Amino acid sequence: MGKLYEMLKEDYRIKEGLKTCINCGTCTAICPAAEFYRYDPRKIVDTVQRGNDSDIEELLKSDVIWYCGECMSCVTRCPRKNGPGLVIMALRNLSAKLGYFVHSEKGRQLYPLTKIMTGNILNYGYCVHPDTFKWEDHVESGPVWKWHTEHLEDNFARLGANFRGEGPGVLRKIPQESLDELKSIFDVTGGTERMNAVEKFSEEKAREMGMSIEEYFTYTFGHCSEGHLNEE
Amino acid sequence: MIYQGKQKIWSEYQKEIPDDKWFYVRSCIRQNFFPASERMFMEICRDILKKDFYETEHHTTCGGIAYHCDTIPQETAMTIVARQFALMTEAGYENYVASCITSFGNYTEILQTWEEFPELETRIREMLWKACRKEFDKPKYLAHASDLIYKYRNLIAEKAKFRLVNKETGEPLRVVEHIGCHYAKMFPSKGVGGAEYPYVLAGMIEAWGGNVIDYPERRHCCGYGFRQYHVKANRGYSISNTHKKFESMEPYRPDMIITNCPGCPYFLDRWQYVIAEMEGKTYGKDGFGIPVFTYEEVAGLVLGYNPWDLGLQLHQVAVEPLLDKIGISYNPQEKYKGLDSKDIMRPGLPQNLKCF
Ligand code: SF4
Ligand code: SF4
């Protein structure tokens, strides 16, 4: 039982989500990610419970841990009350912390994700906000959404939202003092430290790949190599 | 009364939901994509049913999406939630209702983890104090907003102007219900009806006259997958899972779909559009899709609200065939108008998916 295993065991999601796995494969049978990706949650849970550090390190540096959709369907089904989805969250957390995520294509996506999500939270107080949800990045939202994004103020007013307004209501402007509190929570709880770590490791990786950090963002956000899917 | 089979299982998962006095928190995704649904929720609870629902402008995201995209540590997510609880405490409320399923799952998981590991709760309390000088009581009762509409379903039925019935044939509409994964898959006892036979939407459908369809992939995820949608390169995961659901429900010829999750109605609606454009395949009749609704939109429709006040013009799948089936009248000229009928142009039309 090595150092990485000990670090994982500190995570409350492992304390909650890893009892004893009997390798029955029920989680894999129910898993939407396993249907699409070359992914087998049973194997991941088993690798972690065996506690071999070099296997765990390989896992932390691999694409595999980033295939899960965190739907938690596996939690309902596991006959031994494990939570493979929770085990995955702990693995991803450690991979982010140690900078191992930059070793895999799916792991490197943590950079654009972190920029988008934490940017929205700290600047707006929302995880998703119309100012940053660009139609060009979301053509699947259809022609109706293209039209909507061109008429945001009018549509939100028509539907009784309080878009960018004072006071309560849909998409209100969250008061600055509340945004300041969120920032303070990030500083105190390790959120800011995590953002900085992801940024630092990603900048190093971008340099190694010969890209500016902006190019790296675009590339990691949009590029998908062959070899991830079952049907390839 | 002797319960058997499914009914027996449902009876074990009934929640005693308080009737009144709620602290309401909004959903990031729903505010963006279904702004009128949250407005409708407040209108039903406050104006029609005269209940006390309080909202403060100081509440924020619960951080749930960022947490499930693995971009913030667990302590950060927990402390954001602790701050929300502090706002509830300051306002003098004890019942907490979340509009979002990801939030509801997040809150449930956090309260459960604190129960199991009290030292973690203590640490979060210290962090919240350090960051915001705030303290909190935990909610006495935690609900998802759909639990409340479920609770009030018969009151809504009493005031209904329409039923989920085909006006030509008199037959109940065939309705697919889709429950967001984080509603009860992690903690089945926290959802009405549990994880296997959730009754929260089925109860509304039955009370309002429809028939619930059971189909093989009924419990399959809509395919959101957090990072599997927010990162462009991963969206094949999302559409593949939606596709699987539609292929599975197609033989049962659903008239409509009702959901209780923020993301699911968006994905089930938009991926139908993409499947139609990519493959030429549509799941409704005559080139239309199967319309997908939030539970508030359906409540609003049965109560007789104007479909365009409910925001149904922001769906990509046309809702008109369903409105016609029920006999709900609407003005097609008003569909894409702004406030006071202001002309704000209209969206382009998809190539394959039939729309108005
Ligand atoms: S369902 Fe549970 S016991 Fe079975 S393989 Fe998965 S984690 Fe192990
Ligand atoms: S949480 Fe992850 S591992 Fe579990 S069923 Fe969902 S996608 Fe599969």
Largest interface (CB within 8 Å) is between:
A-B, 93 and 96 residues
Radius of gyration of chain A: 20 Å
The neighbouring-strand order within the major sheet of chain B is 2-1-3-4
Shape by Cα distribution of chain B = globular
Estimated share of beta-strand residues of chain B = 5-15%
Q: Describe the biggest sheet of chain B?
A: 4 strands, parallel
Total count of domains of chain B: 2
Give the end-to-end Cα distance of chain A, rounded to a whole number of Å.
36 Å
The overall pLDDT average of chain B reads 95
CATH level 3 topology of the largest domain in chain B: Rossmann fold
Please tally the helical runs of chain A, counting DSSP H or I stretches of 4 or more residues: 15
**Structure classification of chain A:** mainly alpha
Short description:
The complex is a heterodimer of chains A (232) and B (356). Chain A has 232 residues and is mostly helical. In chain A, 59% of the residues lie in helices and 0% in strands.
Which features characterize this protein?
heterodimer; A: Fumarate Reductase Iron-sulfur Protein, Chain B, domain 2; 2 domains; globular; B: alpha/beta; Glutathione S-transferase Yfyf (Class Pi), Chain A, domain 2; Rossmann fold; 4-stranded parallel beta sheet; 45% helix; binds iron/sulfur cluster
